[in-house]
Specification:
The protein starts with 12 loop residues before the first helix and ends with a helix. It is of the alpha/beta class. A hairpin with a 2-residue loop joins β11 and β12. The protein has 9 helices and 15 strands.
């Protein structure tokens, strides 16, 4: 028997279990031929000294490493990049090590071989061809699918129990492909994409700046594609506890302009400095903390949405999910207006048209 004097108060657990079952669903396997398995519903935990591996040390990967170190959320941080970049990788790792006096004791490892990543608790994949000015995320799919195909076997070989977060673009399709490459025996939900967590932050910040309030008091989501066809769920936006729109109130041109500004924001930064890295790094660290501490944070991340919102294809899109040590624990069913649901379905069809050829190619290879 534990000597703990303050165990969790579980008296009301059964009451809220019913609410959860009515308003959320289990994670969805990446294809309909795989049975849907029950997810572990163990109580919240708190875990220290975890090991995190970041694959890909481009600008986004370095942004992730910086944010993770500054938030003191793991005991070991592994940096992996391709062999031709080994010299630069060594320099980056040494630079981070020399700042060790300004954050908690974190062991920093770096290599072009994956053996240093063995037994990671969380693997974050950022590797891929970067998005160029004027280029959409979807245009990267074929090139980055090949890169993902080289990475996943190594990750699964050395860290078969790790939770895996996909950041590489196009994020939703890369997440779907990573799941398919991992195969039917890898737990559903344990691979997820960063999704529209950053998009939603941009959304909240724009509204907050316009109202002179703390962004953390703006509650609302961008869902769907992490890209041009994303969907702002205006019907559920709250300022504190107050709904932004009255029931039935139409979305006006100002609100549409806010969403366009969200979509254009990454392109704006890329045009100005050539890449994005700091904000995506902070959003990844936020999700990493949720995984490593088993926080059950609700955030819009990429997961399979087949069977939800009238979507029939094996598509991964960002929807609000509970994030914990096993990745996506539950998928929240966010009420949508008919227009929002129709726009999400259109986004899904667009994603599927790009994903389908590679999906069928993997099927032909029995992946």
């Amino acid at each position: 028997m534990s000597s703990n004097l303050v165990p969790p108060d579980n008296r009301f657990r059964e009451y809220f279990k019913g609410w959860r079952e009515r308003n959320t669903v289990n994670t969805v396997p990446y294809t309909s031929s795989i049975p849907q398995l029950p997810r572990d519903t163990h109580p919240l935990g708190n875990f220290n000294s975890k090991k995190v591996t970041v694959v890909g040390m481009g600008q986004v990967g370095l942004g992730c490493v910086t944010a993770i170190l500054n938030q003191d959320i793991c005991g070991t941080l592994v940096m992996i990049d391709i062999a031709p970049a080994a010299k630069k990788l060594e320099g980056e790792a040494k630079d981070f090590q020399q700042g060790g006096g300004f954050h908690q004791t974190t062991t920093i490892l770096a290599s072009s071989d994956y053996d240093v990543s063995e037994n990671s608790d969380l693997v974050i994949i950022t590797a891929g061809v970067p998005q160029k000015p004027g280029e959409s995320r979807l245009s990267l799919v074929e090139r980055n699918a090949k890169i993902m195909g080289a990475i996943m076997p190594q990750v699964l070989k050395y860290s078969p129990r790790a939770t895996i977060m996909i950041v590489s673009n196009p994020c939703d399709i890369m997440t779907a492909l990573a799941c398919k490459m991992a195969g039917p025996n890898f737990p559903q939900g344990k691979i997820f994409g960063a999704g529209t967590t950053l998009d939603s932050s941009r959304f909240q910040c724009l509204i907050a700046q316009s109202m002179d309030i703390d962004p953390r008091n703006v509650h609302g989501y961008i869902i769907g594609e992490h890209g041009d066809s994303s969907v702002p769920v205006w019907s559920s936006v709250r300022i504190g506890a107050l709904p932004l729109l009255a029931p039935g109130q139409a979305v006006d041109e100002t609100l549409k302009a806010i969403h366009k500004a969200v979509v254009d924001s990454a392109y704006d930064v890329i045009n100005l400095k050539g890449y994005t890295n700091w904000a995506i790094g902070m959003s990844v660290a936020y999700l990493a903390k949720a995984v490593l501490n088993d926080n059950r944070t609700i955030s819009p991340v990429s997961t399979c949405v087949r069977g939800l919102y009238g979507i029939t294809e094996d598509v991964f899109l960002a929807v609000p999910c509970s994030i914990g040590s096993q990745g996506v624990q539950r998928v929240a069913i966010l009420p949508l207006t008919p227009e929002e649901e129709s726009t999400l379905q259109k986004s899904a069809k667009g994603i599927w048209e790009v994903q389908k050829p590679i999906w069928e190619q993997l099927d032909a290879q029995n992946v």
